[in-house]
Amino acid sequence: MEPGKKLTIGLFGFGVVGKGLYDVLHNTATLQSTIKKICIKNTDKKRSIGQEHFTSEASELLNDEDINVIVELIDDAAAAFEIVKTALQKGKAVVSANKKMIAEHFEELLALQKKYQTPFLYEASCCASMPLIRNLEEYYDNDLLQSFRGIINGSTNFILTKIFQEQLEFNAALLMAQQMGFAESNPKLDIGGFDAANKLSILLAHSFGVIAGIEKFIFNGIENISLQDAEVAKEKKFSIKLVANAQKLKNGKLAAFVLPQFVTTNDDLYHVQNEFNAITTESSFADKHFFKGKGAGAFPTASAVLSDISALRYNYKYEYKKIYDQTETALTNNFYLKVFISVDDLAKIKKEDFEWIEEWHNGLQYSWMIAIIHAEKLVTGNWWKEKGVSLIVYPDGIEEGIDYKKISKRSLELAGVV
Amino acid sequence: MEPGKKLTIGLFGFGVVGKGLYDVLHNTATLQSTIKKICIKNTDKKRSIGQEHFTSEASELLNDEDINVIVELIDDAAAAFEIVKTALQKGKAVVSANKKMIAEHFEELLALQKKYQTPFLYEASCCASMPLIRNLEEYYDNDLLQSFRGIINGSTNFILTKIFQEQLEFNAALLMAQQMGFAESNPKLDIGGFDAANKLSILLAHSFGVIAGIEKFIFNGIENISLQDAEVAKEKKFSIKLVANAQKLKNGKLAAFVLPQFVTTNDDLYHVQNEFNAITTESSFADKHFFKGKGAGAFPTASAVLSDISALRYNYKYEYKKIYDQTETALTNNFYLKVFISVDDLAKIKKEDFEWIEEWHNGLQYSWMIAIIHAEKLVTGNWWKEKGVSLIVYPDGIEEGIDYKKISKRSLELAGVV
Lengths: 418, 418
Prior knowledge:
With about 425 residues, the first copy, chain A, is an alpha/beta fold. Chain A has helices spanning about 15-25, 60, 75-90, 100-105, 105-115, 130-140, 155-165, 170-180, 185-190, 195-210, 225-235, 300-310, 320-325, 375-380, 410-415, and strands at about 5-10, 35-40, 55, 70, 95, 120, 145-150, 220, 240-250, 255-265, 275-285, 285-295, 335-345, 355-360, 365-375, 390-400. Chain A is globular and about 65 Å long.
């Protein structure tokens, strides 16, 4: 119960998050932390604080023995990794918000932490202000976690909300998200699902001890979600959300993916609007938890960085208990998904990929079906990601109970698709 | 990153929570923890496990040097305190779920932890399965927390849900809560607001560093909430919830109370039904967070106890940062509340206590008004807790902006009440 230690920080990047962080740290005496030097690309740019705070030389921060914490808030994932790596090697604690860098280098970063015994915290990398990693790491740590589902990208949720509430077309909604500062500098990262996939990759490690890059699971974004899809969803009293899923199957293996999903009004995720993020967890004893917060924006991101800095004062580090202590959980694509699929041209559907068709609606420019597909088919084929095709998971879309392989393809014949 | 240490547990109490805990601990090898002995009142009672596990002698557990963790799950707060005190003195870590005991002895327990440097964890004491204390303690620890509001008693929320959804009278709903196992053994603790007040007392310490027993703030339960109150609420598109509030006022002081409150449909708390609990926090950078989970029941409570046991394996203890490190926040009753008040008899209202009356409806057996009252008036008077009187805080009921003292009592005259 001693007061926390004093931190001397070297900061990389001085965008909106970095600036906000600077202000708060220097206006909150109890945090006992100061930013000694800030490394930026362009030292000529006019800044809100004196020139003497800045340098363009990374080594000036990394070699400064006074500096015991590096806070990395730059955009470039490759450069960020080099900074983090060097800092950890030099025994400096590191705080980062760079999900892409962390997801891509998870194993190396784990090895570095183990070797140099230096803390590396990155709460801001997943859903900004919400303490997700910390809770998954510390609280749901007893083999009892069954699943989590969540809206973990603020920008796409903002866009989907606008499509739904204001009947905006996709591109108009995207522009609005960019103007509000909710989108990554490269919007493809958000709308293509890459950002959510990077976060899922990180969350899988802290929730189930699974180390898996984004190439290891199915993911997609929301680029092909149309106003017509939203209309169908509304008729069925659903909303459409981009949902990250991780669910333990009955065989103990883990199904994980990021896909657009229909959510019902009694699903907590239904009420999560605009840039808000949310996650539901289900565990054997604790039952369902639901957690909602701001998942994008400069201030919410800075708040998570701040919280990591504060935790370092008390020598907190991730124990990675589930990776080191618990029995390994394996990812699998051996499960079925119930999906809604819409197309502008019937020829785009690879009919032979389906196990079962429940509903089928033909239109001149817009046709849709509700059907069962094996997840492996989504891995091997890419037709469902093409322009003009929407694939949206149905509520409770993971199907384990029925072995559709054993059912004849009679339903497909009846529907006239094979 | 070493595997957690092995724990040998002495358990006090073997009710539903204790039994569930026993099963999980002995079926989850990775937890590395065993219950060595269980202390119960009545050793003659038939149990689901062998007689050799039990004793009625507390000292048999407390003097056993093998036992390094005491888990206290008994009902009697006074006896529980003696057990916890002795265990901490003997250097044993303690896990407890006893909110009454903790709220009543907070300062002594703090001193014991400081003196003997032994961890004392009690996540299960506030909202069962939800990691509230841990999050308030670890995450919102940077002077930036503005407020929290929450439904922190599952039993009363269950009762209110039944009154609302099934038009049950209060007593029928209470009986149902008892049958479902959601009520404390003494229902007065729940419905009189004592349980929620004990939890608020604990949460105030971990959120704002305020040590305050329940006699230090205003609280009430839901005993007087009638079907007619529910009807008025429905007409106004409100629901009624028993809400614990803690809000920093503009002068830096803290307003805290537990009272029934009208909540609007766009309030996250509106959608919290049955035995679920939920809390919203608001902080300067992170903005609004909302967290919902099961706040009552044997399994959700056992899950929190389990999580504390798991945390002890990694030597976790509360740092009480806000008590020791941060500037003190003082409680105040110097604020106004906008309230709905209903009575079966107009004579029960102490009219001169009000500053302002906005609405007034007279009926033969049921009258109600919406009015402004200074919080201090609720401390000094008790008329508003009497049978036949409901006092329900209005949405956004804390009024800081207007100094009603300076406004003439003209409004009261107009309403014909003074």
